Amino acid sequence: MEANIINIKNEIKSIKTNILAKNDIFKISSQMTSFQNDMGSQMNNIQKNIAGGINKTYLDEKVLPFKVISIDVISGQPFITVDYENHQTAYQIGDSLVNWKIVSADYQDRTVEFQNDKGQFVKVIVQE
After folding, report:
1. Residue 67: which residues within 8 A CB-CB, separation 6 or more?
2. Partners of 22 in the beta sheet?
3. Which residues span the domain enclosing 95?
């Protein structure tokens, strides 16, 4: 009987240890997500500062072979929804579509900036 009580106590200790470990993992995961969101925001700000430091001439957005539909933020990262040949797809900064690369996007300003392989820029102000 005493051996059973000792076994039960050991099982309870083991369960408590596992629960505490899972709580620690959840806390660390939450902290990592928060850190990732902060870093993404800081990188976006750095990209905007770098892009703002270059004297650019923008082409008319009509030269783009697609239409920017919206800008959304998911997990702290801007996503740009584009309609190309009647298909809507979401893209991130750094992605390319038909030789146009997304170099910056600002959810608050509702702007997206593209650069083509010739070094030309287009800035789109999204109307929603």
Report:
1. 82, 83, 84
2. none
3. 58-125
* Cα distance between residue 115 and residue 60, in whole Å: 12
pTM over 0.85? The answer is no
Token couple for 50: 């770098």
Residue 82 lies in a domain: yes
Number of H helices and number of E strands within the chain?
1, 8
pLDDT in tens, the chain (128 residues): 677 778 777 787 777 777 766 776 767 777 777 777 777 777 776 676 666 556 788 999 999 999 999 999 988 899 999 999 999 999 999 999 999 999 999 999 999 999 999 999 999 999 86
